[in-house]
Amino acid sequence: MNLLNKKERERYMDEFKIEAYGKINLALDVVGRRNDGYHDLNTIMQQIDLKDIITIKSREKGIKIECNIPEVPLNSSNLVYNAWDKMKEKSGLDRGAHIIIEKNIPVASGLAGGSTNAAAVLKGLNKLWRLNLSNEELMDIGVSIGADVPFCIVGGTALAKGIGEKLETLSSFSNKFILLANPGMPVSTTHVYEKLNIDGIKKKPNMDMLVQAVENDDLYFLAKNMENVLEEVTIKEFKEIKTIKEDMIKYGAIGSLMSGSGPTVFGIFDNEKDLIRCKNKLEKKVDKVIITKTI
């Protein structure tokens, strides 16, 4: 029995709340620079349960963006604005949206906070406007917004190539203990890629072996062999990232790596006791320390 009357049902369908999950890179290699200014990547992306909450409401015209974090832009520089604009273009509908972002993922942190918000808006507007677009169609729109958006649409565990749009789903690497440590400074992804000397990269991840470790659910091999070539740029500019990585290992992580272009560092743990101990130690010197897990 449907307990909602017609008016209440219509109101319910005109508002969607979507969980927008962050990600970490279990390995990241840059294999070339493209003519369009982007870089070709080879990376293992992993969804985590740290999430923003996106509420999307119908609006007759235009877009209104709200957020609980003051430093998040509320104009066209926010990726959710681009997502709304692209969906208008794709659908041919001139409809508005009121988007409320409850932000828990640190801003400009290498955890795909902006990208996952955009992905949530694409999925939400697809429902709100009853467009019935497939995930593949949403991913095609998403890649024009940001390289991480297609992954944020599908989630889970994936090997990503190209600029991030070529995704190969891997076996689930869920329920792994993860500690995030964000030292608080924003890092420009564009700047890091511009500074990277691709020909001078000293240590690259063995992606085939790391993918196999994921497929085999081999936590220890993966944790001890993770590499992110972007560390060569970001750590030179922010020495505290190297210190956080060393502290993670010192206090019980079986592996530690910077996610994306940084500055967030994550540690992988094989038990909750060491995870909590490390969190308590790092909280004394790092701006944000967050317990999460892979999903």
Outline the secondary-structure elements:
Elements: H1 6-13, E1 15-33, E2 39-59, E3 63-67, H2 79-91, E4 96-102, H3 113-128, H4 135-143, H5 149-154, E5 157-162, E6 166-169, E7 177-182, H6 189-195, H7 207-215, H8 219-225, H9 231-237, H10 239-250, E8 255-258, E9 265-269, H11 272-282, E10 288-293
Parallel strand pairs: 3-4
Antiparallel strand pairs: 1-2, 2-4, 2-5, 5-6, 7-9, 7-10, 8-9
Active site: 23, 148
Enzyme class: transferase
Pathway: Isoprenoid biosynthesis; isopentenyl diphosphate biosynthesis via DXP pathway; isopentenyl diphosphate from 1-deoxy-D-xylulose 5-phosphate: step 3/6
Which properties best describe this structure?
11 helices, 4-stranded antiparallel β-sheet, Alpha-Beta Plaits, 2 domains, alpha+beta, single chain, 6-stranded mixed β-sheet, 10 strands, Ribosomal Protein S5, domain 2, 36% helix, 295 residues
- If you average the pLDDT, what whole number results? 94
How many domains make up the 3D coordinates? 2
What is the alpha-carbon Rg in Å? 20 Å
Q: What order do the SSEs take from the amino end to the carboxyl end, as H and E?
A: HEEEHEHHHEEEHHHHHEEHE
**Largest pleated sheet:** 6 strands, mixed
Fraction of helical residues: 25-40%
In one word, what is the shape?
globular
Taking pLDDT < 50 over at least 5 consecutive residues as the criterion, the unreliable ranges are: none
What is the CATH topology descriptor of the largest domain? Ribosomal Protein S5, domain 2
Structural class call reads: alpha+beta
Give me the CATH architecture of the largest domain, please: 2-Layer Sandwich
CATH class of the largest domain, named Alpha Beta
User: Helical element count?
Assistant: 11
Number of strands: 10
End-to-end Cα distance: 34 Å
InterPro entries: GHMP_kinase_C_dom, GHMP_kinase_C_sf, GHMP_kinase_N_dom, IspE, Ribosomal_Su5_D2-typ_SF, Ribsml_uS5_D2-typ_fold_subgr
Family: Belongs to the GHMP kinase family. IspE subfamily.
Domain GHMP kinase C-terminal: 213-286
Binding site for ATP: 106-116
